[in-house]
Write a structure and sequence with these properties.
The structure is a homodimer. Helices cover 48% and strands 15% of the residues of chain A. Chain A is of the alpha+beta class. Chain A starts with a helix and ends with a strand. The interface between A and B is large, with 154 and 154 residues.
């Protein structure tokens, strides 16, 4: 009897054991993969469900903590906060019209500038700019923002070094070819002298959540859109004063800049705005803005 | 010979055929699930990779289309766009300081109002407000926004009906208990009379992408943060004129309002801003804003 015949004989003799073995393997394997797939599907549908409920907010903004003790269900600001009358100065139609024109003309002069004069900015101006940003609306008045204002030359250099290192990788490896192509007219490049030239850098961090005095997590609803709206009001304030800024979104620098600036892990860098006066030889690309009829629909 | 004995005899007799059948099933099943899982893992790792590269932007903002024909790799705006000098009016330190104070005081008076006077707004004011929003910066100057300005009473009612229906569901089913609790001090509720009272509703839509003249998809980098910054500048303009707004994020209304307003599928509703004058008996919750030292870190 050779080896093959012996094997066949054994298999035939013990065919029920072999059947059982195979069936057990099959069931175990099926269950394993089924669980994996179910996990995946349930995660996906949860994400989708959350995404459906949110416009602009992230799923995590809307999730409760597990520890939903009804005794802890007190609002983040007192529920009995009184309502007070609100009657701002009344302006006539003519005055409103006049101011809307004036403000448009002022804002229309705003441009992103990539070349700064190193002339310093008075500290009170920076304070007022950030105070103005702090007047922004936010989801359930959570004010989910921290503004880091860097004027120290060494810290500016350290920030520049990190951003330049990451940008080198972004341009060469991380960004799509279409993206690099789309950026060409703006003459952006990995070298960023403005990060040390500009007298101040404003780093806009978003707080994904915070903690209440009773130690419970404070949910920050719509933290992304709220922080970006605050950045819009900050840019308007910079323009109104007569200063300029560069609206930059430092790709892939969040963790390193957060560590450098010792920010907590519930904060995330959204924007980095060099602020100052334009260099006297500053240039900007000769761009046009879309016409009103391209961006507005009247109904 | 009973049925069971017959079955056993058949299985023993044909054990190699049964073995083969089981093994084929096993292999087919394995391959099927393996493919599913691989698909999932590759999607996840792609998303993670994209998420790592983005701060504030969404993964899809950074993806190339599949059809990356090098001949089509022309920038969305001409690569030879000339650079022009930029020298806005120079202001002295004193003037900058004065204006930064004045602007802060003006913006600090802004409040979200939930009770509007129906008095209409001059059309040119609305035009100027939207033109001002259109001066905002955006990723690679893609200007990814559409502002729908609704003054027609029937359309306002139709919008109100949709928002109220969805809000009823949001409050009762979709929002977390903590969220509903956190909103109590703001006296928000599913009934929204301001949607028909306010003389104008501005619906801020974000364009996730658009199309170039050559038919190729135009990527909108950082469309979320760009549109929210534009909304911030719009709110600043509304306040500067002497009007008021309500910053609302209509949860779960995107698809229905997009259909109602016949907007294309590349647009997504981010904000709904009733705009007008406050009702003469308007009240606001007696909230305080965070102090400067709570939101600003000086380095």
């Amino acid at each position: 009897m050779n080896v093959i015949s012996l094997a066949i004989w054994t298999l035939e003799k013990n065919c029920f054991i072999v059947y059982s073995g195979l069936i057990v393997c099959f069931i175990a394997f099926t269950l394993y993969h089924k669980n994996k797939l179910e996990e995946y599907y349930s995660e996906t549908s949860k994400k989708e469900k959350m995404a459906r409920t949110g416009t602009g907010g992230k799923a995590r903004d809307f999730q409760d903590d597990g520890d939903e003790d009804p005794d802890l269900l007190v609002p983040a600001i007192p529920e009995d906060t009184p309502q007070i009358p609100y009657s701002p100065p009344q302006r006539s139609d003519d005055e409103i019209l006049q101011r809307s024109r004036e403000y448009y003309e002022l804002m229309a002069e705003r441009r992103t500038v990539r070349s700064f004069s190193p002339e310093p900015i008075p500290q009170e101006v920076l304070d007022n700019l950030i105070k103005t940003a702090g007047t922004s609306p936010s989801g359930a008045h959570t004010e989910p923002w921290t503004f880091i204002v860097v004027q120290d030359p060494e810290m500016k250099s350290a920030i520049r070094e990190i951003v330049e290192e990451e940008e080198e990788l972004n341009y060469n490896q991380r960004m799509s070819r279409q993206w690099v192509t789309d950026l060409k007219p703006f003459a952006t490049k990995p070298v960023k002298p403005y990060l040390s030239d500009a007298p101040a850098l404003v780093l806009v961090f978003r707080q994904t959540h915070s903690w209440r005095e009773d130690g419970k997590k404070r949910m920050h609803y719509y933290s992304e859109i709220s922080t970006a709206i605050a950045a819009g009001i900050l840019l308007a304030a910079i323009q109104y004063c007569g200063l300029v800024a560069l609206t930059s979104t430092p790709l892939n620098c969040n963790a390193r800049l957060r560590d450098l600036l010792s920010r907590p892990v519930n904060e995330r860098l959204e924007l980095l705005l060099p602020v100052g006066r334009p260099h006297k030889e500053a240039t900007v690309p000769d761009l046009q803005r879309k016409k009103l009829e391209e961006i507005m629909v009247k109904i």
